[in-house]
Structures are given as structure tokens and as C-alpha cells.
Design a protein that fits this description.
The complex is a heterodimer.
Chain A lengths: L4 E6 L5 H7 L4 H8 L1 E2 L14 E7 L2 E3 H13 E7 L1 H5 L11 H11 L19 E6 L9 E3 L6 H12 L15
Parallel strand pairs in A: 1-2, 1-3, 3-5, 5-7
Antiparallel strand pairs in A: 4-6
Chain B lengths: L2 H13 L7 H12 L4 H10 L4 H8 L13 E6 L2 H5 L2 H12 L5 E2 L5 E6 L11 E3 L2 E3 L4 H13 L28 E3 L12 H8 L2 H10 L12 H10 L6 E6 L8 H8 L1 H15 L3 E6 L7 H13 L16 E6 L9 H8 L23 E5 H13 L1 H5 L9 E8 L5 E6 L2 E2 H8 L6 E4 L5 E3 L7 E2 L9 E5 L5 H15 L5 H18 L5 H17 L3 H5 L2 H9 L1 H5 L15 H12 L9
Parallel strand pairs in B: 1-3, 6-12, 7-8, 7-10, 8-9, 11-17
Antiparallel strand pairs in B: 1-4, 2-3, 4-5, 11-12, 13-16, 14-15, 14-17
Helix pairs in contact in B: 1-2, 1-3, 3-4, 6-7, 8-12, 8-15, 9-10, 9-12, 12-15, 18-19, 19-20, 20-22
Classes of the chains: A alpha/beta, B alpha/beta.
Flavin mononucleotide binds next to β10 and α21 of chain B.
Chain lengths: ~180, ~600
């Protein structure tokens, strides 16, 4: 039987959650015995090569490309997991949610004290994805199946979750792994 | 600010002895005089009472009848409670709005009239109703409000409006209100003839401990909602350590759909004041406070006159009824429009001149209440019942009602029914029998105990009003076959969101999330999993909230999920493609498209 496939994405995140995936150290060798990696920044595959069992999503949705990507994952993965606080609640990027987008853009491109922008315009190149009015957690855009909290979730948490899922076992995380205060 | 205004404010402070504990009286006085408590006024008050500007502001900003911004000379507050909406408040609202040429929360250009909505004002049996300053305008119609507005434009004094004639003591010259009592069923305890003064006389012949014992034996339990045994509460307060002790009567009556305390205040004030005096004797208190909700302030003069009569008769004051060493008097503290102040510890905060924030418990009020002294907070009806127990004996009281729930309950019944009003029934009465009596046998749902209680369906109408089955502070709201129940649930969630004091996160945030999810479902964007979400979030809010408000606020949702699940199920559907129907990419991109002056290439229309 072919190995199940895993895909990962980093949306509006800092790549910290992906670092945490890599942080499983030598267990990554075990992991590739269990699964194949499909579309992911780790192998730089841009398109899905086939249906995946699990998609791990880091980061929430801050712009249209994030939305597009997340939907692409939903269409191609059986199970989607919000990995980390940004995916679950918007996280740090969502700090901009308390002010209108226009104010953020003006501060970043026009009025900020260190801004040098002779054009006096907010960049609008078609290559640059448009921002959403606010940063959305993933589950407000598509259905998410599981949530792994943490900033980032520890490597052990990710490892335990994946092994449980692949073996069809209930996830029983020790308290220390999900205690944050 | 002119010198004379400054002086006026200082005089108001002076009349409360510049006492910061009496902050409510002070800011209410200033609001009345100036139409607002401006920042400048706050500074003057802070200086006079040796408090701080921020402390005064925290009080003013908390209560809905107080404001920092100038309001019109006349403020019309239309009640938009669910029952009022059933009875056509929306049409009345439209008429008010068009007649005045302003929307709600607005003031006419000449600064004369402000129009606002307010939650339940205790007039559900005469809905739709409004408060015009302190004056109650019940049973409104489109024609009536047109006339009211025209007259107010001529003369701003609402007490000169002809709004109809009330009954009972509502016609007293100190009340002069159009409010009706609608006492449709009398019982053996409250609405019956009694020998005035006998209860107190019997009590004074006993030792205070024996009075407490008599109330304990009678099995009297609190009528305000929580149902705590009254005798036990008095015993705790009596035995708690403290130089001074206090009796507070809770007449905040804020639970939507409740109006029985209003009727008790006008018609049974003697039972109430006698009960407070008995409580004072039993627990060893010299001071009683009647906390009167801001909406009932039109009764204040009348009640004060009645208190004076009692003083003149030696029933209040020093050595009451010649009993050496028993001194007791009562003052009235009025509220300013905040549902949470019905919660006993928030009520105490309010009496202390603070924001109506609930206090952390323990310590309970019986140990540390008003000004950190042992305090017994009791509902109006509880105190009236206590008087009767001392008058007629515990055994007599035990013989009425059911085994574990002795006595009667005064119910306020309104909504979809032919005869809304006050019904005094013995505990143990079936919902079904109540419905027959009020003329609502085809009811689709009954909300027992108001929104913090429970919605029950016809298959449960054989349940009974008593502490072990359907406990209630007195609100019974009936919903007819054509009623949109979820709309009502949504209105109640709006009420809780508005009235949460904001102190703790589960209540402040949780109720907003519950309301939002309910809206998604009602708009047809819900999925079956959302019902589980409502259930588990509702349970979390109940479990983790700090006071009774948050511990009950999810009830409209949770009890309809339990008893009327098909209503929800008919609205939700599985999203086949895994996308969330509530997310609208076009709307989410609008701001960015405007800023970048281009359309999205990824998501075209
Ligand atoms: C949000 C909230 C509002 C309340 N409103 C009232 C009220 O309007 N009147 C009342 O008597 N009790 C009200 N209560 C109950 C009081 O906290 C308290 O239990 C009651 O006044 C005690 O008197 P009793 O034992 O005589 O019922 C409320 C409780 C909560 C949590
Ligand atoms: S959750 Fe933390 S580690 Fe993960 S993407 Fe967000 S900020 Fe980075
Ligand atoms: S439960 Fe609600 S009303 Fe009570 S303290 Fe918390 S926020 Fe305030």
C-alpha cells in the first residue's frame, strides 16, 4: 500500500511552526518511513501531486493568496490541521485587526517616520496579493478538522499528533505539552 | 461653566454631606439638574467628595441613565423588550422617530428631546411602554405617541401629559401614574387582607434568635430568583462579626418580564416595610436600604411619604413600638438603569456609590456586604412573606404551597396571553393550569423565570412552579404559535451582551460569540457542527463566569437547543465543499482594492 501523504503550508505565519516541525530531529527519518511529503515549503513542491491525508496549516489568512492557498489545501486534503496560534486565532498578524486596513497601509507606505516613497502611492503591483480587511483565523474561511495550539506547538506535540492520526489512535497529549501559562 | 452652575453642583454634593458613598445620589442629582454629568461637573464632584475624577467618571459611564454628554430636556426611553416587540413596539418606534424627525440615540436639533431604547422597564403587562424622564407611559399606540410628541413640543414637562389613569395607589397624588396593577389572581399570603403591624408586634415579643428560627421553620426561600433559604441567610448575617449590620431590600426587578415587585411596592408597601423592620430586629441591624430601580423612581416620593408615616407612628426610628434598644430606619437608594445591579453584590457596590460591579465571593454579603459589614439582601416579596409568617405563624405558612416549597409565588405573566398581569399562586401550580388561567392554552413555548431561566415546550407544560422543578423569580413569558422563538432568543442574547458588566472574559466575550454564531445560523449560514459549538461554548460561559449573569446568560440558547432543536436543525446545512459560507472574499477585499486602486486578479466578481 502506498504511504499516506502529508502537505504543509505557511500562510500569514512566521515559519516558526515549520521550524517546529523540523525540530522533531531524527524522528523525521521515522516520519518519512510513515508518510510522503507532498506540496510543502520543505520540499518546495508548488502543486499537489495527488490527494493528501493530512494538511498542516501554519498562519491565518491576511491576504487573498492565503485564502486561495487555504482553499486549495481544503480541496486536496482529507484532514486539515490548524497548526499554531496564528492559524487558530490569527495570532500576531491579527494585531492589525483593531484598526482599519487603510490606516495600516498609510502608516507602512506613506506616513511612517522612516518611509521613503517618492511616488506617494500605496504599492499596487498585480504581483502583490491584496490584503484582506482583517486577518482571519483559518476556520473562518474553510472547515478545519483539528487544532494544535502553541506558538509554536512543540515538536513533541506535532509528533504525537501525527503519529496518533496516522495510527488512527486517540490523541492523548500530556498536560505539560499543552500548558502555556 | 457658570459660577451659579458650579455652586449648584456643590450644593447637590453638600446635600449628601459630600459623602462619596452617596455618589449615586450626587450624580443623579447633577444629571437631573444639568441634563448630563460633564467632565467639568465630575471634577467639581470629585473635589467636593474627596474622590477622584476617574472614580466619578467610572460611575457615570456605568449606568445607562447617566451620561457625560448633554441629553435633551426630555428623554423618551422606549422599552424594546421582547414582549413589547410582540405588542407592536416597532410601529410605535417608527411613529416616534418620524414624529420627532430623529432616529434612536439621537436628540432633536433644538436639544429638547432625546429618543432612546431601553430594556424591560417592568411594564410587560401594559406593553408597549416607555419612560418619559421619570414618567411611565404604558399601553402605547401610534396615535398616542403622536399626541405625546405634539404635547411635549409645546410643554417639555412630561408630568403634564395625559397618559391615562392608573388604578390602586397609582392614583395617589404622589404617584399620579397611568400604570395599572392588573392583579388578576389573589392568594393567601400576599394579596389578601392582613392585620397590619401584627407581624412586627409578634416579632418584638420574641427574642431575635426566635424570629430567625420562625422564618427557618417556615421554610421560606428567596423570591428574587436564587431561592436561598431566608432564615439561614438571616442567621448567617446575625452571627457574622461586625459592629453594624444592614438589611437591604432588592427592588431592582430587572429580569425581563418581571413586574410583580412594582405592584408590591405600591399596594403592599406596609408588608414590605414591616418585613424589613422584622429583618432588622432579627439580624441586629439599625439601617435598612430599599434599592429601587431607576425605572421605578416615580414611586420614590410616595414610598418616602409612607416611610415618614411609619416614623410618625413610631414604627421606624428609635425604640420602635416602645422596644428599648431596637432602633431601625430605612432609606431609599435609587438605581440608574443597570440590570446587573439586581445581583446582590453588584447592588451593594451601587449602594456604596460605585460602579455596579459584582464582588468576588466569598466573602458573601452575609459576612461582608455593604461597607464590609454583614448584610442581608432580600427580595421585596420575600420580606412581605416574612411579615405574614410572623403574623400568622410558621405552621400556617407551611400549610400553603407544596412540601418543599412553602407559601405562594407572585407571578408576572405576559406575552402571548389574553390576560397578562399579576397572579399569586401556591407553589406546586402546573404551567398548564397557569396557561388556562391567562388564556394561552395554544402556547408554543413558555419562558419560565425570564431569559436567565428556561424555555419549555408544550410536552413539559405539566411541570410545576416550585423550587425543585421550575424555580422562578416571577417572570413567565408566553410565546404563541406564530412566534419566532429564535428571534426572541437573539433579542435576549443582545440584552445580556449589553448588560454584562464586562469584568470577566467568559461573559464579556462568550456572550458576544454566542450571539454571533446564532446570527450566522439564523441567516442560513450555519452548519450542524455549529450547534455543538453553541452547546459547548454556552456550557463554558456558564461554568466559568464570575457572577449569576454570566452563569445564566447562555440559557436562552441552551434551553431552546434542548427543547426546540428542530428549529435550529431546519436552518443548518453541511457545507459540501468544506468552505465556510460566512466568509465573503469580495467584501474582505473591498478596502484593499480601494487603497491599491485596482481590482483583484485572483478573485473577480
Ligand atoms: C443578574 C442578576 C440579576 C438579579 N436581579 C434581581 C432582582 O432584580 N431582584 C431580586 O430580588 N433579585 C435579583 N437577583 C438575585 C439576587 O442576587 C439575590 O439572590 C436576591 O436579591 C436575594 O434575595 P432573596 O433571597 O429574597 O431572593 C439577581 C441576580 C442576578 C445574578
Ligand atoms: S504560531 Fe507562532 S510560531 Fe507559528 S507562525 Fe504564528 S507566530 Fe510563528
Ligand atoms: S459574569 Fe458577566 S456580569 Fe458577572 S462579573 Fe462577569 S462580566 Fe460581570
Amino acid at each position: 500500500m502506498a504511504k499516506p501523504k502529508i502537505a504543509t503550508a505557511s500562510l500569514a505565519g512566521c515559519f516558526g511552526c515549520h521550524m517546529s516541525i523540523l525540530d522533531i530531529d531524527e524522528r523525521i527519518l521515522k516520519l518519512i518511513e510513515l508518510v510522503d511529503f507532498d506540496k510543502s515549503p520543505i520540499d518546495d513542491l508548488k502543486k499537489f501531486t495527488g490527494r493528501c491525508l493530512v494538511g498542516l496549516i501554519e498562519g491565518g489568512c491576511a491576504n487573498e493568496e492565503n485564502v486561495h492557498n487555504l482553499k486549495y489545501f481544503r480541496e486536496n486534503c482529507d484532514i486539515l490541521i490548524s497548526l499554531g496560534d496564528c492559524a487558530i486565532s490569527g495570532g500576531l498578524p491579527a494585531m492589525r485587526n483593531s484598526m482599519p486596513l487603510k490606516e495600516c497601509l498609510d502608516e507602512a507606505y506613506l506616513n511612517g517616520p522612516t518611509v521613503y516613497n517618492p511616488s506617494g502611492k500605496i504599492p499596487s503591483d498585480k504581483e502583490i496579493p491584496l490584503c484582506l480587511d482583517r486577518v482571519y483565523p483559518c476556520h473562518e474561511i474553510v472547515k478545519m478538522d483539528y487544532y494544535l495550539p502553541g506558538c509554536p506547538p512543540s515538536a513533541d506535540t506535532i509528533w504525537e499528533a501525527l503519529v496518533a492520526l496516522l495510527n488512527n489512535k486517540p490523541l492523548d497529549l500530556p498536560y505539560e505539552l499543552i500548558k502555556y501559562d | 461653566m457658570s459660577d451659579s452652575l458650579q455652586q449648584k453642583i456643590q450644593e447637590i454634593c453638600q446635600s449628601s454631606n459630600n459623602d462619596r458613598v452617596r455618589m449615586m445620589d450626587i450624580v443623579q442629582g447633577v444629571q437631573k439638574e444639568l441634563g448630563c454629568v460633564s467632565s467639568e461637573a465630575m471634577s467639581i464632584i470629585a473635589k467636593a467628595t474627596k474622590s477622584h475624577h476617574v472614580e466619578v467618571e467610572s460611575v457615570v459611564s456605568f449606568y445607562s441613565f447617566l451620561s457625560k454628554e448633554q441629553k435633551g430636556k426630555t428623554v423618551i426611553r422606549l422599552c424594546n423588550d421582547t414582549v413589547d416587540r410582540m405588542k407592536g413596539c416597532e410601529k410605535v418606534a417608527e411613529a416616534l422617530s418620524s414624529e420627532l424627525g430623529i432616529g434612536f440615540s439621537e436628540t432633536t436639533a433644538d436639544g429638547k428631546i432625546t429618543l432612546e431604547y431601553t430594556p424591560c422597564i417592568g411594564m410587560c403587562d401594559q406593553a408597549p411602554a416607555a419612560l418619559i424622564n421619570d414618567v411611565v407611559a404604558p399601553s402605547l399606540t401610534v396615535e398616542k405617541v403622536k399626541e405625546i410628541v405634539q404635547n411635549l413640543k409645546k410643554d417639555a414637562d412630561p408630568s403634564k401629559l395625559s397618559l391615562g389613569i392608573g388604578d390602586g395607589n397609582n392614583v395617589d397624588s404622589l404617584v399620579r401614574s397611568a400604570v395599572k396593577n392588573n392583579i388578576l389572581k389573589t392568594g393567601d399570603v400576599i394579596f389578601t387582607d392582613n392585620e397590619s403591624g401584627k407581624g412586627l408586634e409578634n416579632a418584638l415579643a420574641l427574642k431575635p434568635e426566635e424570629v430567625v428560627e420562625a422564618v427557618k421553620v417556615s421554610k421560606l426561600r428567596g423570591r428574587g430568583g436564587a431561592g436561598f433559604p431566608t432564615g439561614l441567610k438571616w442567621q448567617f448575617t446575625r452571627s457574622a462579626e461586625g459592629k453594624e449590620k444592614f438589611v437591604i431590600c432588592n427592588a431592582d426587578e430587572g429580569e425581563p418580564g418581571t413586574f410583580k415587585d412594582r405592584v408590591l411596592l405600591t399596594e403592599k408597601f406596609d408588608l414590605l416595610f414591616e418585613g424589613m423592620t422584622i429583618a432588622g430586629y432579627a439580624i441586629g441591624a439599625a439601617t435598612g436600604i430599599l434599592y429601587l430601580r431607576g425605572e421605578y423612581v416615580y414611586l420614590k416620593k410616595f414610598l418616602e411619604a409612607k416611610l415618614q408615616e411609619r416614623r410618625d407612628q413610631g414604627l421606624l426610628g428609635d425604640s420602635i413600638k416602645g422596644k428599648d434598644g431596637f432602633n431601625f430606619d430605612i432609606r431609599i437608594q435609587s438605581g440608574s438603569g443597570a440590570y446587573i445591579c439586581g445581583e446582590e453584590s453588584a447592588l451593594i457596590s451601587s449602594c456604596e456609590g460605585l460602579r455596579g460591579d459584582p464582588k468576588t465571593r466569598p466573602p458573601f454579603p452575609a459576612q461582608k456586604g455593604y461597607l464590609a459589614s454583614p448584610t442581608s439582601v432580600n427580595n421585596v416579596e420575600t420580606l412581605c412573606s416574612a411579615t405574614r409568617i410572623l403574623e400568622k405563624g410558621s405552621d400556617w405558612f407551611l400549610s400553603i404551597g407544596s412540601r418543599e416549597s412553602s407559601g405562594t409565588k407572585v407571578l408576572s405573566i405576559s406575552g402571548y396571553c389574553k390576560n397578562p398581569g399579576i397572579y399569586e399562586v401556591p407553589f406546586g401550580t402546573k404551567v398548564f393550569d397557569l396557561l388556562k388561567e391567562v388564556g394561552a392554552e395554544d402556547a408554543k413555548a413558555v419562558l419560565v423565570a425570564g431569559p436567565s431561566g428556561q424555555f419549555i415546550a408544550p410536552n413539559e407544560f405539566s411541570r410545576v412552579i416550585c423550587f425543585s422543578d421550575l424555580g422562578t423569580g416571577g417572570a413567565i413569558i408566553v410565546f404563541g404559535p406564530k412566534c419566532d422563538l429564535l428571534k426572541a432568543v437573539h433579542e435576549y442574547m443582545e440584552f445580556f451582551v449589553e448588560e454584562s458588566c464586562g469584568y470577566c472574559t467568559p461573559c464579556r466575550v462568550g456572550n458576544v460569540l454566542l450571539k454571533k454564531k446564532l446570527e450566522e445560523i439564523m441567516e442560513g449560514n450555519g452548519q450542524p457542527a455549529d450547534l455543538d459549538y453553541l452547546q459547548s461554548l454556552g456550557e463554558s460561559v456558564k461554568k466559568s463566569s464570575r457572577c449569576g449573569l454570566g452563569q445564566t446568560s447562555p440559557n436562552p440558547i441552551l434551553t431552546t437547543l434542548k427543547n426546540f432543536k428542530p428549529l435550529y436543525e431546519a436552518l443548518v446545512k453541511v457545507s459540501e465543499d468544506g468552505m465556510q459560507p460566512t466568509f465573503d472574499i469580495r467584501a474582505a477585499l473591498g478596502d484593499a482594492e480601494q487603497a491599491a486602486e485596482r481590482k483583484s486578479v485572483l478573485y473577480t466578481d
